[in-house]
Amino acid sequence: MASGRARCSAVRQLPLRLTAGALSLNSGIAEFGADETAAERLQQFAAATHPLDPSRIKGPGQGCTWS
Question: What residue spans carry the region label Disordered (predicted)?
Answer without folding.
Answer: 47-67
